[in-house]
Design goal:
Strand content of chain A: 15-25%
Structural class of chain B: mainly alpha
CATH class of the largest domain in chain B: Mainly Alpha
Low-confidence stretches of chain B: none
Number of strands of chain A: 12
Membrane topology (chain B): Multi-pass membrane protein
CATH architecture of the largest domain in chain B: Orthogonal Bundle
Function (chain B): Part of the ABC transporter complex GsiABCD involved in glutathione import. Probably responsible for the translocation of the substrate across the membrane.
Family (chain B): Belongs to the binding-protein-dependent transport system permease family.
Mean pLDDT of chain A: 87
Shape of chain A: globular
Structural class of chain A: alpha/beta
CATH topology of the largest domain in chain A: Rossmann fold
Largest sheet of chain B: none
Helix content of chain A: 25-40%
Radius of gyration of chain B: 24 Å
Number of strands of chain B: 0
Distance between the termini of chain B: 12 Å
Pfam families (chain B): BPD_transp_1, BPD_transp_1_N
Radius of gyration of chain A: 21 Å
Number of helices of chain B: 13
CATH superfamily of the largest domain in chain B: MetI-like
Distance between the termini of chain A: 45 Å
Order of helices and strands of chain A: EEEHEEHEHHHHHEHEHEEHHHEEH
Oligomer: heterodimer
Main location (chain B): membrane
Number of domains of chain A: 2
Shape of chain B: elongated
Helix content of chain B: over 70%
Mean pLDDT of chain B: 82
Order of helices and strands of chain B: HHHHHHHHHHHHH
Number of helices of chain A: 13
Number of domains of chain B: 2
Chain lengths: ~325, ~300
Amino acid sequence: MAKLLEVNNLQTGFKNSNDTLKVVRGIDFHLEEGEILGIVGESGSGKSVTALSIMRLLHDTPGEILSGEVNYKGTDLTKLTEKQMRKYRGKEVSMIFQEPMTTLNPVLKIGRQMKEVILLHTELNRKQAHQHAVETLESVGIPRAKDIMNEYPHQLSGGMRQRVVIAMQISCNPSLLIADEPTTALDVTIQKQILKLLKDIQKKTGMGIIFITHDLGVVSKICDRVNVMYAGEIVESAETRDLFNHPKHPYTKGLIESIPKLGHNQERLSSIPGTVPNLNDMPKGCTFSPRCNFVMDRCHAEHPDFYETDNISCRCFLYDQIAEERMSHV
Amino acid sequence: MRILNLIPLLIIVSFVVFMFVHIIPGDPARLLAGQDATREEVELARSVLNLDKPLLQQYFIYMSGLFVGDLGFSIKSGASVAQIISDRILPSLGLTFASIVWATVVGMLIGILSATFRNRWPDQLGMLTAISGISLPNFWVGLVIIQIFSVQLGWFPTGGAGSWQSYIMPSFALGAGIMAIIARFTRSSLVESLKQDYIRTGRSKGLGKGSIVFGHALKNSLIPVITVTGLQFGFLLGGSVVVETVFSFPGLGTLLIDSIQFRDYPVIQALILLFALQFILVNFIVDIIYGFVNPKIRYD
């Protein structure tokens, strides 16, 4: 499979009055065509900012891409002008958001919002665009799509609105869809439907999807590969099955252990002590070291690289062969 | 239905106005009879005007006239109040509309530019204009532009309502403050709208700045702008008194001043009632416009 997207050493920072706080601290990952890649992490780990950086949608934040490349089909998106970038948004790269209640414009009819993007990126005339919009709405499982074209967002339920947003963002057949916590605000049954819908769309169109979530359960259902993010870095990257079977990084282990399990009588839910470090007070060495149960002296001093074990690459000194050998020699 | 609700409101307004007007010190009977009239002549004038009857009874006499469309007669000139007002209402309405139209158009333009180029020079220039508009009292603006454009340059007449040129300066003086308020409201409301999630959605679809501002954000920002424009319009209808005086404009504002000086009760009452009615109507229209702008508050 060919690489659809390749992110190299992406750094995004928030400008403060006197300095820059790095939110995304040099991440590398890639996405194959037709692949669903999960990005998991807790709040503040930089996963949404990563998505907004790829889309170059940092307008409304104090954020700014500091360095790195976002190669989409061989074009570095970070080098494009705003005008050139607009041709990619909605047509090549689309995005769906967390809050379906507020992502649609409340004062414009669904039809207007659907047709707008189609008219912008295709050669279709108004009538054809209308037809295409209705068909796309039907394809995401919206009943009475024709009527809904004339309705306003507040007349629809949350799940329906998320379907409308999905329809809107796939209506121009993008090759890459970024889904930023698309199911977080929905209740569980609707969540399941939306996940199934995204998977079906992916199968039908072959688009690549970056699926951002904090919910490992969702990842296990939908993703082919997973990147685990912590404090603006990717700390572990693996195929979904490998990650769930043999998690390597202590952080990933903690995340998986904290999923409540059916049938287990647990007095307390397992959790990782502490919180994500503050942006302007990053620990030296490994960023996870203050919360890690396996912390070594080295973790406080050096920043770990990626180490490969069992098809998993993981940013943790526990998997540093050299270190292990060194230890055994002593 | 909503129009029927207005009737009790207007009755209350008429009562309050009637009482207040009669509380103002001063004696119209004395003014009508003349400075050197005898006591008997003054009493005669008083009874002709029904001013010797108890206040409540006067109110009922007035209201029973009002219900059959009789606004009474001016104490000063003897002409019917309806006639006096209809002579003056057109220039006033013209002035009001001219002011509100330019103030809304220019105010919204400045607001949109300021919000779109927030914290850059168009914003700073726009907000400087707005602050000047709010801070400078309209009578002062009126006097200054009379001095510059009428006295020195001779471009416009100093007063009156004889031609369309004579509307330009009063409507400028009257609209400047309103323009400024509308500019500020448009700006803050638009800035708020531009922060919303659906704007990010619009950008993610590849929309340009123009479509974002005019196609998505502006309509969402209109509610506060319409509210403040409606209120200002309401104030304008009765509040052009000062500007009309500065420009000796033959409108309702100068009529009100004259009538108050003469304690011309029927005219004062009719005018204030008219202003109240206009205010209520404007609010009513504003409510209807809300429905067009925001589908959530559409009235069925």
